[in-house]
Sequence to fold (562 residues):
Amino acid sequence: MAGSLPLVPTQAKPQRSTTRNESSWVKWSLIGLAALVLIWMIVLPLIVVLTESLKKGWEVYVAAIVDPDALSALRLTLLVAVITVPLNTIFGVAAAWAITKFKFKGKQLLITLIDLPFAVSPVIGGLIYVLVYGEHGWFGPWLSDQDIQIIFALPGIVLATLFITFPFVARELIPLMEEQGQHEEEAAVTLGAKGWTVFWRITLPNIKWGLLYGVILCNARAMGEFGAVSVVSGHVRGETNTLPLHVEILYNEYQFSASFAVASLLLILALVTLILKGWFTRKSVH
Amino acid sequence: MKTMASKRGILPGFGLTMGFSVLYLSLVVLIPLSALLLNSTGLTWGKFIDVATNARVLASFKVSFLTAAAAGLIDAVLGLLLAWVLVRYDFPGKNVFDAMIDLPFALPTAVAGISLTAIYAQNGWIGSLLDPLGIKVAFTPLGITMALMFIGIPFVVRTVQPVLQDLEADVEEAAATLGSGRVRTFLVIILPQLLPALLTGFALAFSRGIGEYGSVVFISGNMPMKTEIAPLLIMSKLEQFDYAGATAVALLLLLISFLLLLIINTLQHRFRKTAR
Fold:
């Protein structure tokens, strides 16, 4: 969901007049209070994942991760991300190009429609694919005649993930490319450059950090999606279980340490995402 | 082709990018979503009314909307504090502080769900402190609120932060010169300018909270009439192969959340006007 917000340069403005400053004790109490809020709301859940996963020792932790079902869930999660992230990236770039480089009627409507998946509950995001491709859905009877399974199989998981992560890249690129305008591209075309050359040589270098930012957020959500995938997956261990679903299964079987061990893999994914995000944001500001 | 190109500008690629975008949007989002509206499940008007007036359904909506609203309000207050400290002050570790705010965006919701449950369960780090006081968090609406607060906090911080950064210093300084204290300046000068952003942040956190599933199912306990949320009800109807019922609840949920967001957007529009 971070995709719904623009890049925020986080440097403070330098040089403030003294009339805008609180006394030192107010300042430090507010900082202390904010730090407490941050530790309570965000740092504590992070630490608990680590302590719970190592509660029964290193061996239980390693066993949970090298378990064949866990490894198969990891493979499926990576596979889903490898399919969905490039597709949504291509869409994001194409949509941003059409929206920011041209004038046309219904532009605002198009932007609203692109945002739609953010406004819909993930569970509904899964449900709609069941209604279209499920056994009793629109194409259900035809698909079962052809012996094609979409729901409770990989294609269903891919489709639901595509829906959930649909807006991320477009949402990041539209404001960025809007701000950059189109003068550089127009100059290149006037000088005789072809469309693809303009894109690869001018547009892409200009948007690359914003694009990467959108891509890693899209990837984090694609690998971590739970609700939508849960509806369409069928929860077959070793087959249609993604990592987040594997966390749930272990948890419901009261294998808490194993569940937290698998969860810690996803936590590492989140931390890597945050580090990369910070890096891309700094790069795009400078 | 030539006339079209000149009307839209000299850049190429409109047909290709626009065509692909609309096709892809239709395939992934619009056609599947229309399945909800086009009544593919044999959902009749009578069945819809039945579902919409069912006590368990109504109870789940009450839980979903109340906990999401409470979480959004608390996030608005705490998020303002976090944004204020990040924009106005310098302190050691500020970059890490700032980066951590986005953790709820990046952390899979199921991980947040089991972690928060472990913290607030009776034997958990915070749960065990509250238990002697008779306060139960996990498996109560309070637990759901905690999960939704976690999910929603970055929305508030990230919408308020840029607005706070761009506030002009002159009015604030004028107020100080005229003898206004900091608290008064904050309440009379700064807060009104931040209200639209706070409302946007609240609306984002609130609407995310209404639909949220992963972080809530673990901590809520899922007791019908008490801690069952609307998305979970859709899930359980699906598990019982009641597709018409699931569609009805989903439609109702979409309808009410869009209505609420419309009201919030209108309010925001008013705020913007009066702020000017």
